[in-house]
């Protein structure tokens, strides 16, 4: 469930490993990562899709009484290798094929280049804010002006779209067309 949650929310994998129940507002449908845990040193809000919320509701039955959402037999964060180990158990080579951090690159590439009716689907600032990439002056300016909730409405739509896209990938009967690419 942690691996799927990572894919749906696209934080750095360590954030999933160390996610605490106190950071999650299931009613608000957001996960607020405190600044002290972020690489940037700035707090970050992750809008939670219906799919991510469903995972949290399932996990809460198991670990809701603990500090860490994805803790195992004891109340401690997952190790830095747990999500990649799970990928390896699924026969995915995390050195050459895909690693847990790779969900971020996939999200970034597809979101930046997705088109709907020949128009760019997602503003680059929305994508970069969702990835907590604040090194671009425009994105940093938006963050400084609005804080962790900068462009939250657009980011919420993006994250639901992303989760729906993952669901379509998991259904072998559906094909996701890639503009300008080849379909299989």
Strand order of the largest sheet: 1-2-3
Annotated CATH architecture: Orthogonal Bundle
Counted beta strands = 5
- Nearest-integer average pLDDT: 88
Radius of gyration: 17 Å
Topology pattern, helix = H, strand = E? HHEEEHHHEEHHH
Any idea of the CATH class? Mainly Alpha
Strand-pairing-aware structural class: mainly alpha
The CATH topology turns out to be hpI Integrase, Chain A
User: Helix coverage percent of residues?
Assistant: 40-55%
Could you walk me through the main structural features you see in this protein, from its secondary elements to its overall organization?
With 184 residues, the chain is mostly helical. It has one domain (2-170): hpI Integrase, Chain A (Orthogonal Bundle), CATH 1.10.443. 45% of the residues lie in helices and 8% in strands. The strands form 2 sheets. A 3-stranded antiparallel beta sheet has the order 1-2-3. A hairpin with a 4-residue loop joins strand 1 and strand 2 (30-33). The chain starts with a helix and ends in a 14-residue tail after the last helix. The relative contact order is 0.15.
């Amino acid at each position: 469930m942690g691996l799927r949650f990572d894919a749906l929310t696209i934080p750095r994998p360590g954030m999933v490993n160390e996610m605490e129940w106190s950071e999650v507002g299931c009613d608000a449908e957001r996960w607020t990562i405190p600044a002290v845990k972020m690489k940037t040193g700035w707090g970050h809000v992750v809008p939670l899709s219906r799919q991510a919320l469903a995972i949290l509701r399932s996990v809460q039955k198991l670990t809701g009484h603990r500090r860490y959402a994805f803790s195992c037999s004891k109340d401690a964060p997952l190790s830095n290798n747990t999500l990649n180990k799970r990928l390896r158990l699924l026969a995915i080579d995390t050195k050459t094929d895909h690693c847990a951090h790779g969900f971020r690159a996939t999200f970034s590439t597809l979101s930046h280049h997705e088109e709907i009716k020949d128009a760019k689907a997602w503003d680059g600032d929305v994508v970069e804010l969702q990835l907590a990439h604040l090194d671009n002056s425009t994105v940093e300016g938006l963050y400084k002006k609005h804080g962790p909730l900068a462009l939250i409405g657009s980011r919420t739509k993006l994250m639901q779209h992303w989760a729906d896209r993952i669901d379509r990938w998991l259904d072998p009967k559906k094909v996701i067309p890639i503009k300008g690419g080849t379909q299989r």
